[in-house]
Every structure is written in structure tokens, then in C-alpha cells.
Amino acid sequence: STPAAIAAGLSAGARRGLLMKGGVVLETLGKITAIAFDKTGTLTAGRPVVTDVVAVGRPARDVLSLAAALEKGSSHPLALAILEKAKADKAPVPPAFDANAVPGEGVEGKVGGETVFLGSPKAAARRLDIGADRLAEIGALNAEGKTVSVLLANGALAGFLAMRDEPRPDAVDALAGLKASGIRPVMLTGDNRTTAEAVAKGLSIEARAELLPQDKQRIVRELQAEGLKVAKVGDGINDAPALAAADVGIAMGGGTDVALETADAAALHGRVRDVPDMIALSKAVMGNIR
Ligand code: ADP
Ligand code: MG
């Protein structure tokens, strides 16, 4: 392809919200044979809604207040759901100190003199024995396709919140189209196995669950070691290492600034079909439509 054709391809993409950082990215997209998709905010809408607030030894409103306080500075989709719920239930949101995201695990900090952690059941279980009964309760929520985040306060279980996030409306068709063109889609998620499998079943996609950011990066490298050319699609929250390791890293929708910086491309409208559209554009420009 001529430089002029590549420039025309890049600007045609940009007009449709498909940003590619240069001709090499455009060219590589057409050679992709596997695509690793994040779940939350990528294959799902990323607008989870809090469905259950379970409190242990204190009122449910306090659980919501502590969780919302920790999430105030976070851009994680689950954080937005918790802040919405606190607002709807008029739960006060006290200030948090030293609040920090723990990538792939949750968020921790100090609220009202208590040291608080909010995150995945697996991450919580690394910090505290949650007990078989509570784990069973969490498992039942997961089987309904809900994601659970556990709240620990001063080393004790304070409660948990369940959230549900629906798949993006175009995900099923976009994934089927990729498979039909010989590209292997895989769902990667930090979420627990039961929830991940409930979502993956609805989308007919293979799923790898309970992954930390470095696990997602490792899986991208494993697929590359199998000889596949791998794209990684994510909102980039916690997932910069995998985006960077992929042959093409694609930031989805209103992703974070980190994602936009790390990624080679961005799908500004946040549709799953933007990914096959980018690949089709590449093939058209490079003249290798089969
Ligand atoms: P995904 O791979 O689906 O995007 P993440 O890696 O971002 O998921 O997060 C994995 C799990 O860690 C979530 O399912 C959730 O339980 C927990 N978690 C991560 N960040 C947060 C947060 N800010 N608030 C609450 N829970 C969180
Ligand atoms: Mg994520």
C-alpha cells in the first residue's frame, strides 16, 4: 500500500471513531488471529448496577458509606455503580485517606479511623478467612451472573455488595463474526470463575477468570507463543501490561487515560463490532482481503 492509501485509511477510521496510532498499527490489525477481550467494560456495558448490599455486624447504609468513600477517587466501573447506589440510598460518603487501587483486586484506604479494603472475594480471602457460609452466599450471587466485592474493615468482614453488568448488545454478533473469519476470541477477566462462566456462556466465548493484570499479560504472551498474532481489547483499568504486550492494544470506549496512552488504537464509541471493523479496514487498505 502507498503512504497515501494508509493515510486515507487512518482518517477514514478516525471519522468512525476508530483511532489507530499510525500505519504500522493499521497494517498489523489485518494480520490478527486471536483477540483477548476484557470482560468488565469491554464485553459488558461497564455500567454495573448494585443489586444486593449484605451487611455484617453494622447497618447496610454504613457498608455502602464505607464502600463509596473508598471508591470516590476510582474510575473502575464497579466504583461508579457503588457511588450511584450510595447517592440513590442517600448514604453519606465520608472522606477516605490514602485510598489506593490494588490492580485486579480492589481498593484500600482509611475511612473514619478504620482501615478498609473493598475487592474481589479471592483478594479478600487472602487477607481474612471469610468462612464457608459466607463464601456459599457469595457463590450463589455469582451463579446469578453477579460480581461480588467484599468489604473488610479493621481486619473483619463488614459486608459485601453484588453488582450485575449486562453484555453489550452487539457482543454476540461481533464475536460470532470474528470466529467466522477464523479469529479466536478469548475473554480475560479478574472476576471470579462462576460469574465469568455465566457471562461467557451467553456470549459463546472461551473464558479465563480470576486473573491479575500480570496473568492477563502472561496469557497474551502464551497465545503469541502459539504463533498467534494477538490483539488485546480493554478499558485499560488495571490492564495496561496486557495492552502493552499485545501485538495491537485497543482501548475501548471511554477508557482511562492510561489505556489511551498505552494502547495502539482506540474504539471511541465502545462497540464490540468496532474491533472487526478496524480489522476489515486494515484488510481493505492493505489489499489483502481473502
Ligand atoms: P475485569 O477483568 O473483569 O475488568 P478487574 O480486573 O478490573 O475485572 O477486577 C477484578 C475484580 O476485583 C472485580 O471483579 C472486583 O471484584 C474486584 N475489584 C477491582 N477493582 C475494584 C474496585 N475499584 N471496587 C470494587 N471491586 C473491585
Ligand atoms: Mg477491568
UniProtKB/TrEMBL annotation:
An MF annotation (GO) of this entry: cadmium ion transmembrane transporter activity
Location(s) in or outside the cell: Cell membrane
A GO cellular component entry from the record: plasma membrane
Domain of life, source organism: Bacteria
Annotated coiled-coil segments of the chain: none
Keyword DNA-binding attributed: no
Entry keywords, A to Z: ATP-binding, Cell membrane, Membrane, Metal-binding, Nucleotide-binding, Phosphoprotein, Translocase, Transmembrane, Transmembrane helix
Keyword Repeat: no
Recorded family membership: Belongs to the cation transport ATPase (P-type) (TC 3.A.3) family. Type IB subfamily.
Name of the protein in question: P-type Zn(2+) transporter
Organism: Aureimonas endophytica
Native organism taxonomy: Bacteria, Pseudomonadati, Pseudomonadota, Alphaproteobacteria, Hyphomicrobiales
